[in-house]
Amino acid sequence: MEGSVSLVALLCRTSDRTARAGLGVQELAARLGERLGVEPRPIGSPGDARAAGYEDDLRDSRGCILEAGGQVEDALSGGNRPLLLAGECSVALTTLPTALRLRPEAKVLWLDAHGDFNTPETSTSRYLGGMSLSAACGEWDSGFGDSIRAERVVMAGVRQLDPGERELLERSEATVVGASTVETLVAVKNALDGAPVYVHLDVDVLDPEAMPAQFPVPGGLSADKLYDLFEAVAEDSDLVGLEVTALELPEDPEAVEEAVATVLHVVEPLLQSLGDSVPAG
Would you state the pLDDT for residue 276? Predict the structure, then answer.
């Protein structure tokens, strides 16, 4: 796939509950821009982080969520690859359906400690981010229209599911590979089967010892294991695009540098794949 990288920093609020993830977007955008030699495109301005119900966030953040999908559409329609950074996972409401509408042969690789497969009926937190993948798969109507078939989704590293969420996933056609699976890499490769892939990375898929998180869940992937997984994916599959969410920036400057460096390390195989399309100079 020819073209260049469209690096987008989504600064506007979707369902962000802390300000630290928005700061993570800004820091990571700058570092990724340096790494790839492209200028990040900031979208919107940070809103007040707050714990709102999903109905309020759907209303108040509709423009921002639509913009996320619009940026993916603009990139892919122009023959470019989107690299989208966001504070949390609600962007998937529009990014995943957009990516697969334009690349229907692709699959989604969803890397997250959480399934984000709750619905308004199963969620106890009423957190929109925790319902984002289920909405993208058409399990409930978020009002954004398009959806994808769950059979196109490969989930890996998921290790915390609510009871109702688990039941929905078990009934769905999505492939779920747990973080504790010894052969995680092989299982993911088999499930993707060489198809083009759009990658959703919530950095809390990493173990909390490797990455600070707003909602930490023990037992996550190590940085090296995730690097190896991405290396295998990049070798086997055309990378349609990448979105990175939920870099909860620590307050300590040394910890900030460590967290950003960890993200840059694990996505390096994907950046190399993206970099193949970046003109020199």
Answer: 60
